[in-house]
């Protein structure tokens, strides 16, 4: 894959914003600057914010800008090194052992060495990112992982190297671009944040949300985009269980367009509400209080 640019080839935050804009990701000055600094200083970019504000999408677009594969590590409770780093392909090792025995192999030490050859090592996301040049590593929803994994990740990102007892140390020739995201379901330790360039992603402003809708959904008219953005902004301050993010706003707008809407028709808005709100209580509250009316 040919790179569109390189991490060191981005000249300024404004230049990076233009490159991301070419991939339909609109940033504000703060986010563009944080992303630029992470690239130039070779530091992980730590993004916190509500679900659906564009954290994961930024990593995807950044990979597209750099012409690099996106390698994603989805965090969850109980995630351990074997699932994040590497594992041995026991099935292939067993087949190799049986084939060697059938061929009459007699050198036990040599055979044991062959079993732990690199070809039998399965690279999980962290190792794959270190071995892939270039790459963008997305550590998604770190707040869902355990404290032990967080400490392990910090150690890995400090040296961009992994020790495999049977093979030695595998070190990245060029460190991957790293994006770490958190929905803040729990606090992430300061030790990891100190290693990163930190940025909190807010829900977009009205004008920026309208611009995003128009950019990502070319068939959406200015009127519908403004009406949807207005309702979305109002719902975010309505005390809902899960306020809509930009991802849900895009889904809702696409649903409305699919139903033939050109303006925010109350009937179509209510009928398609499942694309915007994912909790029954939120839907009932919004319909009861008439919050779908555009102003």
Please, could you describe this protein's structure?
- The structure is a single chain.
- With 295 residues, this protein is an alpha/beta fold.
- It contains 14 helices and 9 strands.
- The chain has helices at residues 13-21, 29-41, 55-66, 81-84, 90-102, 108-115, 125-131, 147-159, 190-194, 206-216, 222-235, 246-258, 266-271, 280-288; strands at residues 45-49, 70-74, 86-88, 121-123, 136-140, 161-164, 168-171, 177-182, 197-201.
- The protein has a 5-stranded parallel sheet with strand order 2-5-8-1-9, with helices on both faces. It has a two-stranded antiparallel sheet with strand order 3-4.
- Strand 6 and strand 7 (168-171) form a beta hairpin.
- Helix 10 crosses helix 11 (222-235).
- The mean pLDDT is 90.
Keywords:
295 residues, alpha/beta, elongated
Indicate the topology:
Elements: H1 13-21, H2 29-41, E1 45-49, H3 55-66, E2 70-74, H4 81-84, E3 86-88, H5 90-102, H6 108-115, E4 121-123, H7 125-131, E5 136-140, H8 147-159, E6 161-164, E7 168-171, E8 177-182, H9 190-194, E9 197-201, H10 206-216, H11 222-235, H12 246-258, H13 266-271, H14 280-288
Parallel strand pairs: 1-8, 1-9, 2-5, 5-8
Antiparallel strand pairs: 3-4, 6-7
